[in-house]
Design a protein that fits this description.
mainly beta; four-stranded antiparallel beta sheet; globular
């Protein structure tokens, strides 16, 4: 079983930056990808970015150029650096670990953005 825990959320002013962390533990595999998603009130969960075990990254157009997904010094921690945050970025941010047929989600970390 795999556990996923997000952290780093908190109130940020419009134009500000925040770095979220995703820590994965448990029975992880060598072939995987880790993705960041978000869900704002009344909206569907939205895909943001993904990092594969080989270092490849992919971004949704809405965050390309402002958000960066990268791995920490330990391979079980993945970060999402968010710059130039806007009120429309306010949401609960989730991390998803996927390997083979299974995936695991964290409980999310909230990011309010004040205008």
């Amino acid at each position: 079983q795999v556990q996923v825990v997000e952290s780093g959320g908190g109130l940020v002013q419009s134009g500000g930056s925040l770095k979220l962390s995703c820590e994965v533990s448990g029975r992880t595999l060598s072939a995987y990808d880790i993705g960041w998603y978000r869900q704002a009130p009344g909206k569907e969960r939205e895909y943001l970015a993904r990092l594969w075990d080989n270092g490849l990254t992919q971004y949704e157009d809405a965050v390309k150029g402002r958000f960066t997904i990268f791995r920490g010094t330990t391979k079980n921690v993945v970060y999402l650096q968010m710059n130039n945050l806007k009120p429309g970025d306010a949401a609960v941010y989730y991390c998803r670990y996927r390997s083979g047929p299974g995936d695991s989600w964290g409980r999310g970390t909230q990011v309010p953005v004040s205008s």
